[in-house]
Amino acid sequence: MHDFARFPELSNSQMQLYYFESPHKQIMDDIRVKVVKVHDADTITARWSERDFDFPVRFLNIDAPELNAGGSVARDWLTNLILNEEVDLIIDPKQRVGKYGRLLAAVNFNGMDLGEWMQYLGLVTTFGNRRPGEIPEIKWP
Q1: pTM of the shown model
Q2: What is the secondary structure of 26-80 as a DSSP string?
Q3: C-alpha span between 42 and 57 (Å, rounded)
């Protein structure tokens, strides 16, 4: 049995098993939501008219520093920009849900991709570059 209260988003593989049991609409396409909380620079809480609860959204393809490692600057910048504002969530059907059950999306505000904007400002990095200076593990064929 799936815990819809803790994990409202179904991954693509779970859709086959639980789609018809889901008590709420699954997000498959781009939607407009209101931002009701900014947790950090890569996670927000959204409110959508088609659901009776608020839900977390993880920005796709970016990684923000932890709050105690300079991430509060990025979070505060994002909070000042979008808290209580409407944003567009751009859904990639192949990457809809992250490993912690959060919806993944590119977040657009006034036509601007906020992930790209924060990268340009140096507030966040791309997800693949989140450990600068670390030697990557090389797997030989």
Answers
A1: 0.85
A2: ---S-EEEEEEEEEETTEEEEE-TT-SS-EEEEETTEEPPPGGGTHHHHHHHHHH
A3: 8
Residue type for position 108: N
| Phi, then psi, of 94 in degrees rounded to 5 | -85, -15
Tens digit of each residue's pLDDT (9 = 90 or more) over 86-121: 999 999 999 999 888 899 999 999 999 999 999 999
> Cβ atoms within 10 A of the Cβ of 64, count?
25
pLDDT of residue 129: 56
Q: Which two tokens stand for residue 136?
A: 């990557």
Q: How far apart are CA 105 and CA 63, in angstroms?
A: 13
Domain chopping of the chain, boundaries: 29-129
CATH class name, domain 29-129: mainly beta
Q: Could you tell me the CA-to-CA distances from 80 to 67, 73, 109, 123 in Å, in that order?
A: 16, 11, 13, 14
Mean pLDDT of 44-60: 95
Phi and psi for 105 in degrees, rounded to 5? -160, 150
Which pair of tokens denotes residue 79?
């909070």
Positive or negative, the CA dihedral 47, 50, 52, 55 is: negative
